[in-house]
Amino acid sequence: MNRSLFEYEDEIKLNNFGSTISNSQVQVIGPEIIFGTLYDRIGYGSVNNVLFKHLVVTRLFNPSSKLKTIDYLFRYQGISINISKIYRFLDNLCLRKDEEGLG
Questions:
Q1: In whole angstroms, what is the distance from residue 11 CA to residue 22 CA?
Q2: Are the C-beta atoms of 51 and 39 separated by less than 8 Å?
Q3: Handedness of CA 100, 101, 102, 103 (dihedral sign)
């Protein structure tokens, strides 16, 4: 390692620490904090379904296709979800909406 004449011990420790971390060890939590709080404040926290919360927060932060949603959840949250599970969940949600006359 090439060290500068003016490097301080704390900087060296930080550089050494940073070189030991990989991307898979870093988790994005900002969207979960911001949109998770919004999710709870508007009352969705009473739904008590983790998949629903992941879908809502992810789509608020990164509105894209369901496949991109799965990619985002896996890449940044470490959550692996099968696309079929999402489609079944959304079908069930749609059926409940129709049964309750909300559609």
A1: 19
A2: no
A3: positive
Report the candidate in 1, 92, 5 with the shortest Cα–Cα distance to residue 51.
Answer: 92
- Whether the full predicted model's pTM is greater than 0.90, yes or no, is no
Cβ(17)–Cβ(9) under 8 Å? Answer: no
Render pLDDT for 31-54 as a digit per residue (tens, 0 to 9): 888 888 999 999 998 888 999 999
Count structural domains, the chain: 1
Residue 20 maps to a domain: no
Structural domain harbouring 59: 26-99
How far apart, in Å, are the Cα atoms of 97 and each of 37, 44, 72, 100?
Answer: 24, 15, 27, 5
- Angle at 22 (CA atoms; ends 20, 23), nearest 5 degrees: 155
Question: How far is Cα 74 from Cα 97, in angstroms, rounded to an integer?
Answer: 28
Quick check: is 51 in a domain? yes
Dist. CA 72–CA 59, nearest whole Å: 10
